[in-house]
Specification:
- The complex is a heterodimer of chains A (517) and B (193).
- By secondary structure, chain A is of the alpha+beta class.
- Chain A contains 15 helices and 21 strands.
- The longest helix of chain B is centred in the N-terminal third of the chain and has 28 residues.
- Chain B is elongated and about 65 Å long.
- The N terminus of chain B is likely disordered.
- The chains are: A alpha+beta (517), B alpha+beta (193).
- Chain A: This is Putative membrane protein.
- Chain A: InterPro entries: UCP026631, YdbS-like_PH.
Chain lengths: 517, 193
């Protein structure tokens, strides 16, 4: 177990400034090297010395310095800049401290402008560990604690890789409402670092780098869902945007054939390369995708070179949408997105927002993920209902659908456009061509509204909107029978009150710990 | 999903854009009660009639500016048909102002056992139920015109931006009493996010 969570102030990984400025340093080094290249080549292969004042390298500042005998001054300035930079980085590292108490996680940073950020543990929406490629090589990781709100995240970048994992476990344990004594017991799985020594260090790095994305001891294997690479590639290619691309390609071919001007193709080469690069990066980011159930919530991880994984504690999912793009239909693939109260600054799998929990999966995968995300809604009893919500063409199947007179507003989806209620949530089924099922768990919904405009009123129809925190999903159902809509409104309003008092997910282990003690 | 939105030009933020469209009054008047979404037997608290004047004043100022701006193309070009823009804007705002008394009378709220019920709109009706425990904060704001007649506006904020409960036209004392009441009941029914 780490001692980070003992309530005292701690500092970050010593190499933090390097990782943070890492890219800038590399670029700078590249620029400097680029400008020196001619000089270095000349030094080894040319007949002039390095400092030959007659050498002409396009009048770069070095020539000027050599000519004016300012070498000493130049070195002095360079040294001063270097010292200032190193001093600044050291000071910023030194002043960047964090602590984790029983109630809050707090970060202080800044040299001239100090910032102090506190996040309440029981408001944690998720903890993300990201390992960008270069820090990952050095065994460092970035811990990001998402608290409800926009840009309300507390970042600890960077920490030692293994520390980050342990710290996340400890924070989640504290946040769960379990006692501190429970942490000590839980921390036995903590592995010791190998002793000092360069060989051991390298071995350690290599082991960490080659380790599976998901630590096998973390989650029982049957609860782990992995991505099939073939399906991933297929689903990336078969998007609606791809149709336009294919059409554009056909158009281009026709144009080339008709005009006989091969040069036309060259003009489109950059666009082609761009699309190709986009697809490759999307696929690479989603490789090694896994979603698993851990004691402190759902863990979603992905990434080949830069990896990222996030743990979402129970009850942090405000709304779930299972949807199927048109081209995925022959393959039976689905996608799952969620609404969450926090925004992570990290991008999610497939370069999408981190609200896409399952980039692509078949019916079995959807079942597994729904069980993980909404254990109260996706019970064994309710699963057939959920499946009918995804697949059924409509009719008498447990959903209350739009009446026939709504056909004018829901041309194809009228028989399917409907809702169903379970004890724990509301299911909204929409779309016959782009099929989708939206699930809102009652304890998470904020309010509900019923609406009727001048089109719906003469048809005795109404629409119901369920309000959740903002995100990619807007749970709403239009063109319902007016009486059904009013009944739904009343029932949802009542259920949201009833379930809110029974909900304890903000301290998800408190009851368990209390009964143990 | 997009079609659902198309049915309701009011959209998610109907609170702000409610009066944009001049309503064709006859359809509304002839609609039998059973067609509308009015829940029977609700004891609505209405907002102060003084708010009608406040609302009209606001639209009069805004409408005048917009109408004058609408005539600019006509003054610049002198082309007669381009005056239609200004005329259309003027008529639109006159209709909006004429309907203000009814629109204000349609605003109502009801304090139920565990939730707040809020309704507004005549053409685009909207009724919201918000459990008290979902409250994040209560805001009281007063514009210059409303302050002159002693009115205030109360906003009930939840974690969802689309909740949109904004009760205008409350006498300041009532607004403050309502705010204190809402905070008190929210405290006893506090729930997670």
């Amino acid at each position: 177990m780490t001692d980070f969570a003992d309530g005292e102030w701690h500092r970050l990984h010593r190499a933090t400034p390097l990782f943070r400025g890492g890219l800038a340093v590399l670029i700078l080094a590249g620029l400097v090297l680029g400008s020196f290249r001619d000089r270095v080549i000349d030094l080894f292969f040319g007949d002039r010395g390095f400092g030959d004042p007659d050498g002409d390298f396009g009048g770069d500042p070095l020539d000027f310095i050599l000519r004016e005998n300012l070498v000493l001054a130049a070195f002095g300035v360079a040294l001063l800049v270097l010292l200032l930079a190193v001093g600044g980085f050291y000071l910023s590292w030194r002043l960047h401290t964090f602590r984790i108490t029983d109630e809050v996680v707090e970060v202080r940073s800044g040299i001239l402008f100090r910032t102090n950020r506190k996040g309440r543990l029981d408001r944690i929406q998720g903890i993300n560990i990201a390992r960008p490629f270069i820090p990952r090589l050095f065994g460092a990781a970035k811990l990001e604690i998402s608290v409800a709100g926009n840009d309300a995240n507390v970042q600890l970048s960077y920490l030692r890789s293994a520390d980050a994992d342990a710290l996340r476990r400890e924070i989640l344990l504290l946040a769960s409402g379990a006692r501190r004594s429970a942490i000590a017991g839980d921390a036995e799985q903590w592995t010791e670092h190998p002793g000092p020594g360069v060989g051991a260090l390298l071995e350690d790095r290599a082991r960490e780098f080659l380790a599976p994305e998901l630590d096998p001891s973390l989650a029982p294997p049957e609860s782990v869902l992995r991505m099939n690479p073939g399906r991933l590639i297929g689903s990336t290619i078969l998007t609606d945007a791809m149709i336009f691309l294919v059409i554009a390609g056909i158009g281009l071919t026709v144009a080339v054939v008709v005009t006989g001007d091969i040069l036309l193709l060259i003009g489109f080469l950059p666009a082609l390369l761009g699309v190709g690069g986009f697809l490759v990066s999307r696929i690479a980011r989603s490789l090694r995708y896994s979603i698993a159930s851990t004691p402190d919530g759902v863990r979603v991880g992905f990434g080949l070179l830069s990896t990222s994984n996030e743990t979402l504690p129970p009850g942090r999912i405000h709304s779930v949408r299972v949807s199927q793009p048109l081209l995925w239909r022959p393959f039976g693939w689905w996608q799952i997105a969620v609404n969450r109260a926090s925004r992570s600054s990290q991008q999610g799998a497939a370069g999408q927002q981190q609200t896409t929990i399952l980039p692509v999966g078949n019916l079995d995968d959807v079942r597994t993920v729904l069980r993980l995300l909404l254990p109260d809604v996706a019970t064994d009893d309710a699963l057939p209902l959920l499946e009918r919500g995804m697949l059924s063409p409509g009719g008498e199947d447990g959903f209350i659908n739009s009446p026939r007179r709504a056909r004018a507003l829901r041309w194809f989806s009228q028989p399917r456009n409907g809702f169903a209620l379970t004890d724990a949530g509301i299911l909204l089924r929409t779309g016959a061509i782009w099929r989708a099922l939206t699930i809102v768990p009652f304890p998470r919904m904020q309010s509900v509204s019923v609406r009727q405009g001048p089109v719906l009123r003469p048809m005795r129809l109404a629409a119901v909107h369920v309000h959740t925190v903002s995100g990619p999903i807007t749970p709403a159902l239009g063109a319902l029978d007016r009486d059904a809509a009013l009944a739904l409104f009343a029932e949802v309003a009542e259920a949201s009150i009833r379930t809110a008092t029974a909900d304890t997910t903000h301290r998800w282990r408190a009851s368990a710990a209390g009964s143990r003690a | 999903m997009s079609r659902a939105v198309a049915d309701h030009p009011g959209g998610a933020d109907a609170v702000t854009d409610q009066p944009q469209t001049p309503p064709p009054a006859p359809a509304e008047q002839s609609a039998p009660a059973s067609r509308s979404i009015e829940p029977p037997g609700t004891d609505w608290q209405r907002v102060s009639p003084k708010y009608i004047a406040v609302d009209i004043a606001g639209y009069a100022v805004f409408g005048t500016i917009m109408t004058v701006a609408g005539f600019i193309p006509f003054w610049v070009s002198g082309w007669a048909p381009s005056a239609l823009l200004g005329i259309a804007l003027g008529v639109l705002f006159l209709v909006v102002i004429a309907l203000t008394p009814r629109r204000v009378r349609a605003i109502g709220y009801a304090l139920r056992e565990d939730d707040l019920l809020f309704r507004r709109g005549i053409l685009f009706q909207r009724i919201v139920a918000v459990p008290y425990g979902r409250m994040q904060l209560v805001d009281i704001t007063r514009g210059p015109i409303a302050r002159a007649v002693g009115l205030a506006e109360l906003k009930f904020v939840t974690a969802a931006a689309s909740t949109g409960v904004l009760i205008p036209g409350l006498p300041l004392a009532d607004a403050e009493r309502l705010r204190d009441h809402l905070v008190a009941v929210a405290e006893t029914r506090r729930a997670g996010l």
